[in-house]
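Dear U.,

Please find below the material for section 3 of the report. The protein was modelled together with S-adenosylmethionine; I have listed the sequence and SMILES used, followed by the predicted complex structure.
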Amino acid sequence: MDWYSWHDGYDGPSGGRLQVVQTQIDAALATMTESPIRVISICAGQGHDIVGSLQRFDRRRDVEALLVELDERNVEAARRRIADASLTGIRLKAADAGVTDVYKGMVPADLILACGVFGSLTDQDIDRTVGLLPTLSSPNAQVVWTANRAAPGLWDTALTAFDRHGFREVWTTDRAEERFGIGRHRLTTQPRPFEPGMQMFSFADEDTLVRIGRIST
Ligand SMILES: C[S@@+](CC[C@H](N)C(=O)[O-])C[C@H]1O[C@@H](n2cnc3c(N)ncnc32)[C@H](O)[C@@H]1O
């Protein structure tokens, strides 16, 4: 997968997904009274979602965000997007978002974005990742996440993981929505202490993704 050109989809069919994600980010930010509001984006891509939401968020100067993305081309595109939007308070790291160390100094977070991540992970890694989110979370932290409903089992695996690990649903896309799946969950258990050095996930290789039905050939 070319993760740079993947973002071209936002000019076409994926534009609808982006709007819904941004609406959920807006809704999450609107509930947050603390300052600073800490946001981390896991596999942030070119930052379309959080940049769009922060541009229209009145309290954007209260937000400290960390965007973690492996592909340098996407990091550069995100850097340009942030500059064009005149946003301050957003840091970018070109790094592996799957290892907890990368979030050191930016957690506990009030809002965690995990968009476009679960579809590239095995079920075990989805469960492991969601299981470690409470170590990155502040009390009542919210997670905005996506999982394609067309990939067999993916949506239910993600929902089950949130349920198992102390999160409760705030909002999810309707079951009839077939183009994409988006969720917003809130941590209802106590956060756990940050654990550096934990591997949350690695993107699975293409053969594995085909075998487990995430993508078709
Ligand atoms: C499907 S895109 C989603 C991008 C963004 N979150 C969005 O929804 O617009 C997945 C992104 O994950 C990045 N990625 C893949 N493996 C990663 C890793 N281990 N750490 C950080 N980013 C990674 C890819 O480069 C790609 O930009």
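For the text of the report, you could mention the following: DSSP finds six helices and seven strands in the chain.

Regards,
Y.
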